[in-house]
Write a structure and sequence with these properties.
The chain has about 350 residues and is mostly helical. The protein has 15 helices and two strands. It has a two-stranded antiparallel ribbon. The protein is elongated.
Length: about 350
C-alpha cells in the first residue's frame, strides 16, 4: 500500500504491477454496478462479482482548482477526459526513481505533469515527496489521492484524500472523489458521508448528488437513491453516466418501462460506450422488444473488442428471432447491424 503520510520507497530495480483491465471507460468499482448478461427473464438486483464484471458506468472528476483558491492549475488539466480509464496496463514497468525531499527537483510540477500524462504511479512518487517538502500542501495531497486511486491503491487514496479534505475542507471535489474511492472499497456508509460532506460545501453539485445516489443504491436504499440521482440530473441533465445508473437502478427493481427512457437517453449521450448498449439491450429484452435488443447489442459489438457479454446477449435474442448465432468475427458486427435494420 502507498500512503500519503510516508514517502514511497521504490526498489533499486523495476516493480512489476499486474492490474487487470476492466474494459474501456470504467474503474474497478464501476464494474460492480453493471447489470450482467442474464436469461430472458427479468434480471435481479444481486451484486455483480468484481472479478468477472466487464463494463462500468462512471467518470472521474477532473483535478481542477476553482479560481482564488491559491494554488495553480496543472497545465492541461481542464482538458482531461471525464471518462475513467485504467491508468496502468498489465505488466506495466515502473522505472527506477531516485527521489528525495530537498533534492532540488520541482516534485509538485513533475507530479502534475505525470498526472496529466496518466503516468499515475510515477506522479504519486513525486507528489509524496512534494508533501514531505510542504506538508500543508492540500492540492498535492488531492492529486496524490487521485493518482493512488487510479493506480489501484484504494487505502492510500483514501488516506491522501482525507488529508486533503482536512487541510482544505471547502474544496468539494475532494469529498466527491473520496466518496468514489469509498464506494469502490465497499465502505458505502462512509461513501455516503463523504458525498453529504461535499453537498454541505456545494449544495448544487451534480456530482455530489450523483455520488450520494450511488452510495444509497449500494446500501440498497433504492427510493432515496433514485431521488438523489434525479436531483443530479436537475443540475446536469447532460450527464449520460447518471442516466445510465438511474436506468440500471430502475431495471433492477423490474421497473422496465421507466428504465427504458433513462437508458435510451444514456445511449444517446454516450454512443461510444459498450456497456450502455448492453444495458439498453437488456431492458429491450425485458420488454419483449427482441429486434431492438438485437440491434443495440450488435451496435455495441461494432465498437470494440470486449464483446463477451454482448455476444452472449445477441445470440440469445437472435435465437428468439430465428436467426443464426453471431460467428464472433469482428467485421460481422457491422453486417449484423445492417441485417437487423427494417
Amino acid at each position: 500500500m502507498l500512503i500519503a503520510q510516508k514517502r514511497m520507497h521504490l526498489p533499486a530495480g523495476l516493480v512489476i504491477l499486474g492490474l487487470a483491465l476492466l474494459g474501456p471507460g470504467c474503474s474497478r468499482e464501476q464494474a460492480v454496478d453493471e447489470v450482467g448478461a442474464g436469461s430472458a427473464t427479468a434480471a435481479k438486483a444481486g451484486p455483480v462479482d468484481r472479478r468477472s464484471a466487464s463494463y462500468g458506468i462512471d467518470e472521474v472528476i477532473p483535478a481542477s482548482v476553482p479560481a482564488g483558491m491559491g494554488e495553480s492549475l496543472p497545465v492541461g488539466e481542464a482538458a482531461m477526459p471525464l471518462a475513467e480509464e485504467p491508468g496502468l496496463q498489465p505488466d506495466f514497468l515502473l522505472p527506477e526513481l531516485e527521489l528525495a525531499a530537498g533534492d532540488g527537483r520541482d516534485h509538485m510540477g513533475e507530479g502534475q505533469r505525470l498526472f496529466n500524462d496518466r503516468r499515475f504511479l510515477e506522479a504519486a512518487a513525486h507528489l509524496q515527496v512534494a508533501l514531505e517538502e510542504k506538508p500543508e500542501g492540500w492540492y498535492a495531497a488531492y492529486l496524490l489521492g487521485l493518482s493512488l486511486w487510479k493506480s489501484g491503491d484504494l487505502q492510500g487514496a483514501e488516506s491522501a484524500l482525507r488529508r486533503a479534505g482536512e487541510a482544505h475542507p471547502a474544496f468539494s471535489r475532494t469529498h466527491v472523489n473520496l466518496s468514489r474511492v469509498l464506494n469502490e472499497a465497499g465502505d458505502y456508509e462512509a461513501a455516503l458521508a463523504a458525498a453529504d460532506e461535499a453537498l454541505g460545501h456545494e449544495p448544487q453539485s451534480a456530482s455530489a448528488h450523483y455520488l450520494r445516489g450511488r452510495s444509497l443504491a449500494n446500501l440498497g436504499r433504492h427510493l432515496e437513491a433514485e431521488s438523489a440521482l434525479r436531483q443530479s440530473l436537475e443540475q446536469d441533465e447532460a450527464n449520460g453516466d447518471v442516466w445510465n445508473r438511474l436506468g440500471l437502478l430502475l431495471l433492477r427493481q423490474e421497473r422496465f418501462s421507466e428504465a427504458l427512457p433513462a437508458l435510451e437517453e444514456a445511449a444517446q449521450q454516450l454512443p461510444g460506450r459498450v456497456y450502455v448498449h448492453n444495458n439498453l439491450g437488456l431492458v429491450y429484452e425485458r420488454l419483449g422488444r427482441f429486434q431492438d435488443a438485437a440491434d443495440v447489442y450488435a451496435r455495441g459489438m461494432a465498437l470494440e473488442d470486449e464483446r463477451g457479454r454482448l455476444a452472449a446477449n445477441l445470440d440469445r435474442v437472435r435465437a428468439v428471432l430465428g436467426l443464426d448465432p453471431w460467428t464472433g468475427k469482428t467485421e460481422e458486427a457491422e453486417r449484423v447491424v445492417a441485417e437487423l435494420q427494417p
